[in-house]
Amino acid sequence: MQTYRMIILIAMILLTTKDAVESFDSHLRGPSFIMEPPTRLEFSNSSGGWLDCSASGSPQPSIDWLSVDGTSVGDVSGIRRVLRNGTLVLLPFAAAAYRQDIHSTVYRCVASNSVGRIISRDVQVRAVVTQAYKVEVEALGAARGCTALLKCVVPSFVKEFVRVVSWIQEPSFYIYPSLQGDGKFHQLPSGDLLIHNLEFSDQFAMYRCRTMHRLSRQYTVSGPANVRITEHRGIVAPVIVESSGTITVAQDEGAALLCVAQGCPAPEYRWYSHTGLEPSLVMSGPRTRQLGPVLAIEAVTPEDSGSYRCKASNAGGEASVELRLIVSTPLHVEVTPPMLSIHMGGSAEFRCSVSSHSGGPHLVTWYKDGRQLPSTGRGSSDTLVINNIGREDRGMYQCVVRRAEGDTAQAAAELQLGDAPPVLLYSFIEQTLQPGPAVSLKCSAAGNPTPQISWTLDGFPLPSNGRFVIGQYVTVHGDVISHVNISHVMIEDGGEYTCTAENRAGKTSHSARLNVYGMPYIRLIPKVTAVAGETLQLKCPVAGYPIEEIHWERGGRELPDDLRQKVLEDGTLVISPVEKKADSGVYTCWARNKQGHSARRSGEVTVIVPPIIEPFSFQDGLSEGMRTRTVCGVSSGDPPLVVSWLKDGQPLTPALAVNVSALDPYSSLLSISSLDSRHSGDFTCVASNPAAEVRYTAKLQVKGNENPWFLLSPPTHPSMPLIFRYCFGTRVNWTPKGKVLLHRFVYFH
Ligand SMILES: *[C@@H]1O[C@H](CO)[C@@H](O)[C@H](O)[C@H]1NC(C)=O
Ligand SMILES: *[C@@H]1O[C@H](CO)[C@@H](O)[C@H](O)[C@H]1NC(C)=O
Ligand SMILES: *[C@@H]1O[C@H](CO)[C@@H](O)[C@H](O)[C@H]1NC(C)=O
Ligand SMILES: *[C@@H]1O[C@H](CO)[C@@H](O)[C@H](O)[C@H]1NC(C)=O
């Protein structure tokens, strides 16, 4: 249980201004991407496309989109929308509505909050107006016993989007792509169909190829074609009729290199790799399989990049072709350390590292809060050094790496200023003067967060009348400057002025007297609230100068008249510790000068007992769907009492579905009618009265429901993988969707 002393004197209200930039209790955190948009988005005009972007941080960052020239991207009626949750939607559009600056451009997502701003990688967007296209079959015949090749010819304007999904032998025999084929039919990964061991009857079958446009997901089927069996008999030397040329495959994916030769008898294939120093014959191995015209490599690594040669030979001769495999690696960037907290005047160093396999040359640029920093020219660009750190250097630093291929990746780090308690840079001095002139008292302070300055006169708020003006502002360096200006100083304005600079790291204050010549005068003593058990210091608000003596009395008796009381030389009454019964009441102070003139004034002291919360807890062994309740009772403490609840330090939200009701002015019932995992955490009861705020925290633990829930997407054809998605620990509904064999099960918590 912790006690937070709020206010000792209720009447002492902090003077606050809007200039102070930070709040005292916030745990600020710069934005970081939860979902960064992809490097590339291609979509068809009929489907439209969207880019998700979301970020976390405290306060919750807002999401914006930037176009290639750095301007903010907005809605364009019927074409583009920016949703409130940060998603950028590119709507389906008619061919005539195509706009290069919207549909074929680069976007970037920006996440910003009060700490700073970060930008995402570049997203290359490309919309394709889908056009109807035709495919046809081109058949290369062969002699009996040899191999025929059927090609599915796709017009070049759609070739990059279209792939051959299957072949159909009329009426309804489907052939799907595979590495090896079934001995008779083999749809190569490239889409071509091989028909081995041609027989006379093969020329009567009709074949069609079926293609899919990957953006519009529309299927197109060719017209029928058949295989011609050539009359030729005898030996035909191999001729390469198809090769995969240069292919690019992402790291860890499978690659299929392809070279198809026609010849009779069926050629034998040998593969050579030129990836090492010497060309070498490729042997089948754990990752490599040589399947005639196909060389399949599983889980490619950058070392597999390079050129390969395929040689096809038979008794009639040999033919060869060179192919290239390029393994593309993901670009991964990291900035270390991800967070630095540095004191003002110190220096910071961030290092940007690019994953070792990110390949070729790359360019590193640094950004601060979304703006590119000038390259310093000193040292390597992989390191960013910031010296003599000031307040304006706080924020988000990003390393953006661009590869020759044109793609970018980024990583961000946050620079915070370490907390520093306030230091007074300037403070006013004691002055003695005649009534009449204008007086200005000034204090200025530095610290992080920017401190706030408050003023008191003899421990009480400054008089509120037209002669007093208080002004506070924050300089560009984040220092705070505060003035108390008194237009025509009067006798009654004399006393001890105090300025107090405070931030979450600490507080400091300065006091000095303003002496105004004149008769003794005692200002109004506001109602004073003291906290039972603590020390009360009550200063007699005496004006007039010079003053000879100050006294306190209560009920006609001069103080001190108790061991707990003391009257200091400057006229301050100290009571320690305060007791409710003994010390509540009216106190009088009086002051006298040498000439025997005197003044007196009385004030009332109320003693308040701080609240005490009775310990409470939650039951053990609670699980989802159960009910629970607990009561926060305040066993002592004076009214007015306010009792409230926090969950994990934050106020309860309606979304949490927690019911709070007051049983009586001293007890609050917290009940939850249906527990779920979100309810696990710390519940804190906060009880406050004008004397103090106290807290008591109990842990609630809700056990999850252990049945997994999963969603199946049934495969659309046999070569497609099964996809399972499931989560853990929420309410479960099982929906049987047919029989599926589960091979592997991975649990996520
Ligand atoms: C934003 O909302 C849209 C539609 O409501 C949804 O499809 C999209 O996934 C959401 N984006 C994020 C980042 O949650
Ligand atoms: C996309 O463009 C094609 C070809 O011009 C057109 O037929 C189709 O209707 C367009 N889609 C939409 C949603 O307008
Ligand atoms: C108070 O007086 C000082 C010094 O004359 C001046 O700089 C300042 O602006 C004044 N502040 C206000 C709030 O009037
Ligand atoms: C809160 O209590 C009220 C009545 O006491 C009840 O109607 C309501 O359903 C409760 N809400 C929840 C979230 O338990």
From TrEMBL:
SUPFAM superfamilies: Immunoglobulin (SSF48726). Residues 31-120, 145-222, 238-328, 330-416, 421-515, 520-606, 611-701 form the Ig-like domain. Keywords: Cell adhesion, Disulfide bond, Immunoglobulin domain, Membrane, Repeat, Signal, Transmembrane, Transmembrane helix. GO terms for cellular component: plasma membrane. Pfam families: I-set (PF07679), Ig_3 (PF13927). GO terms for biological process: homophilic cell adhesion via plasma membrane adhesion molecules; neuron projection morphogenesis. Gene3D superfamilies: Immunoglobulins. PANTHER family: CONTACTIN 5, IG-LIKE DOMAIN-CONTAINING PROTEIN. This is Down syndrome cell adhesion molecule-like protein Dscam2 isoform X3. It comes from Agrilus planipennis. The gene is LOC108737726.
